[in-house]
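Project standup — Tuesday

K.O.: blocked on the structure for the chain from last sprint. Re-posting the sequence here as requested.
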Amino acid sequence: MMSQVQEPTVATPVKKKRLLSIDALRGFDMFWILGGEKLFAAFFIITGWSLFHIGAEQMQHSAWHGFTAYDLIFPLFIFLSGVSLGIAAKPLSSYPPRQAKAILLQGVKRLVLLIIFGVLYNHGWGTGMPASPEDIRYASVLGRIGISWFIAALLVWYVSERTQWIVAVAILVIYWLLLSFVSIGELGGGNFTAEGALNVWFDQTFLPGTTYRNLPLDPEGILSNVNSVVNALIGVFIGRYMIKHQANAQYLLIRLVILAGVLLLLGYVWGQFFPINKTLWTSSFVLVTTGYSVLLLALFYALVDVICLTRWAKFFAVIGTNSIIVYLGSSLINWQYTSKSLFGGLIKIAPAGWQDIILFGGMLLLQWLVLYWLYCRKIFIKV
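H.V.: unblocked you, prediction finished:
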């Protein structure tokens, strides 16, 4: 009788709270893509506070080497896809053969759809989808998310946890050795520039279609996809760790913070020899971004699961539960035009600074309301 009373109070709520914190963090991540990053510059114009100026600078990608907060958006999403995988997935050998086959096929379907949606996102503006296959950009953010998730899923489904750890470490080290010491013609051999890195040869030789802005190196190119798998794998390890220690929130929080610190320390130290670079997706970049990702997850876990401050989390969860719609919508719908159409009168009479707040705040509000409408009707479009 005691087990009947304890079962619902221990197992069920923990699962719901954990999922809310992950959805909230995913929504927080996507919030900046909706237009949230533009508010810092607007607030700086109004207040003149240097804090907002720093925030506006952090909402720009690094010019080349280095790291900004905006550089974290993409790898954080990959990391969270791994966390969800680590929480829910298990080896396919533990399923009946027919169910295992269905799970594998669903994974392949997800990969293909994300690649297709990525191509659609790339050509959502301007002249539209090119008629010639050679003019299509096949590499994409969604494609990388699909590839990193799928390879991580295959490892979870088919190999042991120990092997997964070995693969993660091996990828980081081999990628570093490859870019640092292997050269093909004049490319590589420790050249980490946009024109001379070994990645250029891979993209020019194997990447079909065109590259981003017809540059020699695509930021979502062939070789750097390999290292992004580790972002997902570290997410898998963290997801498993959360499940294992879910009964002791304080212990889990402390360990997550310590792990985040170790990853950041290793990443910044390695960055002295192998520069932190988003486009090359260097091994130091992987460690730094996963370090900050774990730190953010610990923060959201503490606020949502431990302190139980859930109301604010639901604001971001509304975004996080339909993240694919958020991302595609940012390319296929001109939300800035829509905001101007609805709030144009207020924008014209508002003083400088406030014009941008009304414009971009309107964009955020309109997108959030659409997502909230889907959320209330439990319409979650997932791939």
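K.O.: great, moving the ticket to review. Confidence is low (pLDDT under 50) at residues 1-18. The CA atoms of residues 178 and 276 lie 16 Å apart.
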